[in-house]
Write a structure and sequence with these properties.
Blueprint (H helix, E strand, L loop, with lengths): L2 H20 L25 E6 L6 E4 L13 E7 L5 H9 L3 E6 L2 E7 L8 H10 L2
Keywords: Signal
Length: 135
């Protein structure tokens, strides 16, 4: 056999061996693919409403009155809940962007109070009290 034929045979096998060596093994039937993270399910006990806070699609929600939220509600503030801990991105953005403060946590949700100013502004009693305090 001529040396060129020997070289061709050896070099012909080389690419095939490289492909086999570099290919990934097929997953076995016992290996399960990683599950996608599950979406947060809002507990009804917090009375969440809306489709996101501060914008639609955001992970936080406004919270209504319920036995779990009653002690955190204030007529001059909005109560917002964000899934996860206070230092998670969702809660941190509401705290920093809306001057909110963490008032509690319940069922995996951080509760944040966002001040809205004087809830009684424009009412006669509030206007009189404000005028009297300025004298």
């Amino acid at each position: 056999m001529a040396w060129t034929q020997v070289l061709r045979r050896r070099c012909g096998l080389l690419p095939a061996l490289l492909l086999v060596a570099c290919s990934q093994p097929a997953p076995s039937s016992s290996e399960k693919p990683a599950a996608a993270p599950t979406a947060f399910v809002w507990p009804a006990t917090l009375s969440p409403f809306g489709d996101g806070f501060p914008n639609a699609g955001d992970p936080c929600r406004r919270l209504g009155e319920s036995p779990l939220t009653a002690s955190y509600l204030d007529d001059s503030a909005i109560l917002v809940g964000c899934p996860g801990a206070a230092f998670d991105a969702a809660a941190a953005s509401v705290i920093n962007g809306k001057a909110g403060r963490v008032v509690g946590a319940a069922e995996g949700v951080t509760l944040i109070s966002i001040p809205q100013g004087d809830a009684n502004q424009g009412m006669p009693a509030a206007d009189e009290a404000t005028a009297a305090s300025k004298k």
